[in-house]
Automatic annotation (TrEMBL):
Cell compartments where the protein resides: Cell membrane
The keyword Transmembrane helix belongs to this UniProt entry's keyword annotation: yes
Domain GGDEF: 431-564
Protein's UniProt name: EAL domain-containing protein
Keyword Metal-binding among UniProt keywords: no
CDD domains xrefs: EAL, GGDEF, HAMP
Segments forming domain EAL: 573-826
Segments traversing the membrane: 12-31, 145-163
NCBIfam families recorded: GGDEF (TIGR00254)
Keyword terms of this UniProt record: Cell membrane, Coiled coil, Membrane, Transmembrane, Transmembrane helix
Amino acid sequence: MKFINKLSFRIWFAINTIVLTGVLTLSGLYLHRESSQLENSLKNEGITSANTLNAAIGLYMLRGEYSKISPLTYSLQSRPNIAYVIVRDKEGTTINQKGETSIDKQHLMITKVPLEYFQEHVGEVEIGLKTKALEEQQDRLLRDTFFTAVVYSLLSLIISFLISSKLTAPIQKLIVATKKLTAGERNVEVWAKHEIVEIQELSTEFNKMAQTINDHEKILVNEIEKATRNLSEKVEILEVLASISNSVLEDDIQSIEVMKRTLISIKNYIKADQISFTLINNNERLEVFGLEQNENLSSLELKMGDKTINAAIHKREVIVRNRLHANNMSYYEQLLYYDGLRSLLILPIIAKNKVLGTLNIASQQQDYFSPNVIEKLSVFTNQIALAFDRVAAYESLQKSAYYDYLTGLPNFRLYKNSIQEALEQANKQNKMVGVMFLDLDRFKMVNDTFGHAAGDFLLQHIGKLLISCLSEKDVVSRIGGDEFSVLLANISGQEEAIDIAKKIMKALAAPVIIQGCKLHISASIGISFFPQDGTDVESLIRHADRAMYRIKKQGKNNYGIYSTYEDDNMANPIVLENDLRKALERNEFVVYYQPKIDVEREMISGVEALVRWEHPKKGLITPIHFIPLAEETGLILQIGEYVLRQACQQCVQWQRLGLPPIPVSVNLSIGQFMQSNLISNIQRIMNETGIQPELLEFEITESMSMNLERSIEILSELQKLGVHISVDDFGTGYSSLNYLRQLPIDTVKIDKSFMKGIPNDRNNEAIVATIINMAHNLNLTVTAEGVETFDQVQYLRKHNCDNIQGFYFRRPLPAEVFEQEFQHILNDIQKVTKIPI
């Protein structure tokens, strides 16, 4: 019995299937065979009956004695299973018929027997056999066979049930165990020993599977926890890196503030006991900025000879001191040691192959800095280097934007801001402010005689001399060339300003030695006062300038105070405004065009339209003398529309004359820019003149972007017209680093103040290169203004500046002169391109 139970389930299933199939098959074969035999018996009965009378009927048929056939057919028809008998001759004609042929064909079996007499065919006998008895026999046979098959099938099912009962219980246990495994239970096991081999194997494999899933799940959980920890560390590092980067994205970034934020971010990440940041200053000394408990910065100066920091800076080494001790330490290490610190890590900060300083992290624990910790902390140095490089670039940019490159004095932009602040303060306190305008006498003679280097030296000397004559509250600025201006903030009266002017003239009287020659320098000084000579910056500067020119005309080397009686009509706002209105009516404004040069493609890439005023009495007047009043009175809107129309018409006219399509750029004033109908006016002029949109460019200044949201809206509408947008005087505005990436613009124009001193001024070189790279990274083109020397052209070519504009190629020209000079300009460009960079 045990052997039978241990038989393979597959064998049991095969045996049961064979038995059941055999029963059904044999039953079917038996039923078919017996039914066929009954049918054959009935048919043979008819054939035998017919054959017994075959010879006699055949003889009578041959003799034609048909009357003698009837008794014979009657004898056949009288038999129990014969329904009718029909005798036909060989032509098929019925000779004799006994019985009813109308019986339902379904209950008849028809048999035809040929009539032959001594092998001669004489006809046939058709016998209709009754099948009722046959059908009854077949029905009995079917019932008996069916009963037998059912009995054997039941036996087979009983056997199957007995087998399945042994299989169902363990499978049900496996199903329950599987549901538990699916529900999350892991310590699931089923009884592996069973009588059926397959069940035993399945149970064994199930237990192995459950154990494997449990093991793999533990491995997966461990890997997930490990990955989560690593991801968390990466996120923390990215947050610190982002914090360092964000510290230099603000409008007014300061290196000290960036250092503080950097140290706080790193300290929050590593949770070290003390962090210090070291930078090398320009005066060849080290200044260590440490983060105190209250998160304020403290500083400490070290000598350059400190061997530990010196190794990190000059040898670019990572310094690790995991066991600081009192012996054989540098001064910096001693400071840390006596503060209770026992581990030190110094990481050099390198940007553009230059060591900016070091990141120093100290801990109270010995052996704190493992290779893993050092690797994590090293990630920060690159970001710190980028941050401080950006700060340095920003500070250099700010310095160039607000300070004169030669003398280091505030430039005109910063100077005007200082005057505005002084005026606001004086207005509140009811004080007086003085503005001096100073121009050196015969400075051009110094340049022509001794060269520009001597002239530059003299300007630097004058700047220092003016500072020595002023108090701390006063501001001196180099306006341009040999012109200086002085802000006398919060003076008591005109006498104080006159005393300062005399002091300056006395200081200038001292000879200056240049190339072995004693030079005696003098200056003409004009003075205006707030509030009597003007209440705004432009008026005070303009009036001081006019007072200075009066002194120039009177013999130079003196000072003078502005007087309204000696001013000419051009200085009188009312007269000037009246003349401006007449100029519009009389078409006295003309448009000049200054070419923009694409040196690499040897072509004129465009022209800038610049307005001039042909005054009937005073001749050609440049915009600086009338544009401020035009903006103040609103006349700039009519002037601007006139310039735009003229520029568009001229662009179309040049194409008709056979010149290639030349894009023309037009300056938009702040008044025009903020017009509600600006877009419709431009669209109207473009339609009326027929200019192609891609040949028209509008130049805006950075000051127009103070309302950034409104500026973006206006510029987007302009770009929908198909025109181009450029930013003029780029790098000198308040938000150049913030708004550039947001405004929909195509080009930036580097302000001409940055071209001064190139290629000798390294700060300006760095700024120009930075602007070009930054613009190209933003898919913007770059135009450099104020290019006056070949060296400047070569520098811009070297740094892939797209377009060059300035006196080196051409000053602004009337339209007809530009047409005449067109080919000459192209020839000049080709001469430049033949010279290698």
